[in-house]
């Protein structure tokens, strides 16, 4: 009996020790977990900071690329050299940054002017001075055009949500941003996509996506507020442009109903059977199905204007 | 700068003198450094003598691109019977049925690749409801597309002749001087001239047509 009690006590003690150990271990584990969580939080914060640093770095690099001397010399008719940097900038920047940057550029365009002491006897600025300042203003304006033109669709929707529907701080800037987007995309359509045969599915798809972006802005309930007025060039003519004129007409460059009709005709004129050069019948079928899908999309857009 | 202007002027003058099917009689004024001819004459293969054409009008073709008005080419139009040509938007193309010969002379102020020229002509034909499946039109557009790119400072010519049976012969000469003969019907004659005299495909062509119809 004694020995049994002894064994039981020893067992109890053993179990008790294990339980204490276990409890201790649990406590240790809890503290280790807490410590690990704290470390993970720190790591996450570190990763976030690193990601943000990388993003900001990308933003700076894309801006530098956009403003590189070689890309800002030839701005007309379209600042082609600025496009790559502007595209990256639009992809990387937050909507707040995009609209704030646009605001800053608009202020720069308005305020940059030569010192009055540089005026000639006739009260005008010499041609070279006027050209230099107008060029600076055009560089800033073309940043707005290219960034707004190639800004990802969901960011444009977010800007509309935040600044226009949400009554944001930069609502007026948002209207200018949208005008610049339509004007630039209209030019891009006319000068690249529609200027050449639209003879591949990818070209057709690109045209539908870009014209779709224009179409969406043309149909917004605030469409009559979308305009741009730049009248602070030194020698150059002012730029006064609105989405719809006083008669409700659209400029040819972004006249979506006309442009959709043009695109629809290109299915028969350029794309025909998909212009497939080689490939399996499976691939051919896939291309033909895609063409049918694209044609239906264009038809839907056309119907939406009737 | 002066040297390059002189060089360009000489280049234009030499084109006036060395045109193949189409010959231009030098005029006294110029547009963007391009001499505007007083009249023209065409000599198609198989004809015994050159046919004299009257000056109808000339003007600058610009294109609005974003915020710039880009100068594309200087156009000059000639027809065989200026007296019967109706200088109104509605009447100009209709009056072409009274014409038997004509010519279009385009001098490019910027380089434009051949497919782009072809698409711009096609859009203008389309704007005038010209049947794009018409055999002559198909051949004409193919000639433009397959021809050389339009080079800055060089000219392209379209010389048109309609016979008594309504058969139309067009000699298309690209900016490299290569000629292509296209045969078609009345649609070909009307279609080509409608690009500049008919319903404008864009605002730049509208301005150009207005200038041409004034006969300036």
Structure characteristics:
heterodimer; A: 306 residues; mainly alpha; two-stranded antiparallel sheet; extended; B: 216 residues; alpha+beta; Chalcone isomerase; eight-stranded antiparallel beta sheet; 5 helices; globular
Based on secondary structure, the structural category of chain B is alpha+beta
Task: Give the neighbour order of strands across the main sheet of chain B.
Answer: 1-4-5-6-7-8-9-10
Helices and strands of chain A, in N-to-C order? HHHHHHHHEEHH
Largest interface: A-B, 20 and 19 residues
Describe the strand arrangement of the main beta sheet of chain A, using strand numbers. 1-2
Strand element count of chain A? 2
Number of helices of chain A: 10
What is the C-alpha radius of gyration of chain B, as a whole number of Å? 16 Å
Low-confidence stretches of chain A: none
Structural class of chain A: mainly alpha
Q: What is the percentage of strand-forming residues of chain B?
A: 25-35%
N-to-C SSE string of chain B, H for helix and E for strand? HEEEEEEEHHEEEHH
- What are the low-pLDDT stretches of chain B, counting only 5+ consecutive residues below 50? 1-19
What's the domain count of chain B?
1
Fraction of residues of chain A in helices?
Answer: 55-70%
Largest sheet of chain A: 2 strands, antiparallel
CATH topology of chain B: Chalcone isomerase
The overall pLDDT average of chain B reads: 89
Give the overall shape of chain B.
globular
Strand content of chain A: under 5%
């Amino acid at each position: 009996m004694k020995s049994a009690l002894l064994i039981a006590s020893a067992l109890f003690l053993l179990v008790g020790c294990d339980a204490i150990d276990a409890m201790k271990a649990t406590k240790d584990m809890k503290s280790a977990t807490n410590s690990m969580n704290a470390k993970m939080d720190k790591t996450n914060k570190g990763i976030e900071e690193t990601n943000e640093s990388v993003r900001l770095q990308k933003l700076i690099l894309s801006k530098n690329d956009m403003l590189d001397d070689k890309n800002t010399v030839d701005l007309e008719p379209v600042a082609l050299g600025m496009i790559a940097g502007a595209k990256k900038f639009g992809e990387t920047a937050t909507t707040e940054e995009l609209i704030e940057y646009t605001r800053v550029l608009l202020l720069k365009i308005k305020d940059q002017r030569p010192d009055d002491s540089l005026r000639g006897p006739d009260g005008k600025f010499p041609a070279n001075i006027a050209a230099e300042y107008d060029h600076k203003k055009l560089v800033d304006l073309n940043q707005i055009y290219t960034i707004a033109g190639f800004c990802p669709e969901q960011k444009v929707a977010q800007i509309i949500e935040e600044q226009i529907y949400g009554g944001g701080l930069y609502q007026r800037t948002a209207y200018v941003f949208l005008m610049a987007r339509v004007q630039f995309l209209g030019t891009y359509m006319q000068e690249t996509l529609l200027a050449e045969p639209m003879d591949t599915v990818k070209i057709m798809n690109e045209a539908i996506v870009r014209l779709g972006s224009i179409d969406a802005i043309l149909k917004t309930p605030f469409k009559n507020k979308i305009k741009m007025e730049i009248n602070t060039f030194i020698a150059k003519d002012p730029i006064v442009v609105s989405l719809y004129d006083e008669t409700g007409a659209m400029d040819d460059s972004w006249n979506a109903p006309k442009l959709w009709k043009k695109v629809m005709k290109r299915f028969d004129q350029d794309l025909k059977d998909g212009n497939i050069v080689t490939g399996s019948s499976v691939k051919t079928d896939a291309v033909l199905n895609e063409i049918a899908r694209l044609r239906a999309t264009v038809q839907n857009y056309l119907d939406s204007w009737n | 700068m002066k040297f390059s202007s002189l060089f360009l002027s000489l280049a234009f003058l030499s084109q006036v003198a060395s045109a193949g099917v189409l010959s231009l009689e030098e005029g006294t004024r110029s547009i963007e450094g391009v001499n505007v001819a007083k009249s023209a004459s065409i000599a198609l293969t198989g004809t015994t003598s050159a046919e004299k054409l009257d000056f109808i009008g000339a003007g600058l073709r610009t294109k609005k691109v974003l915020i710039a008005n880009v100068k594309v080419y200087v156009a000059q139009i000639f027809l065989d019977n200026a007296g019967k040509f109706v200088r109104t938007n509605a009447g100009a193309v209709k009056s072409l049925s009274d014409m038997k010969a004509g010519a279009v002379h385009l001098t490019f102020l910027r380089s434009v690749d051949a497919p782009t020229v072809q698409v711009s002509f096609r859009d203008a034909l389309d704007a005038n409801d010209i049947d794009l499946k018409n055999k002559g039109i198909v051949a004409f557009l193919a000639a433009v597309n397959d021809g050389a790119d339009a080079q800055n400072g060089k000219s392209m010519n379209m010389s048109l002749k309609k016979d008594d049976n309504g058969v139309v012969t067009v000699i298309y000469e690209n900016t490299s001087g290569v000629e292509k003969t296209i045969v078609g019907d009345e649609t070909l004659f009307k279609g080509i001239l409608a690009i500049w005299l008919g319903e404008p495909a864009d605002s730049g062509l509208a301005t150009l047509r207005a200038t041409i119809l004034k006969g300036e």
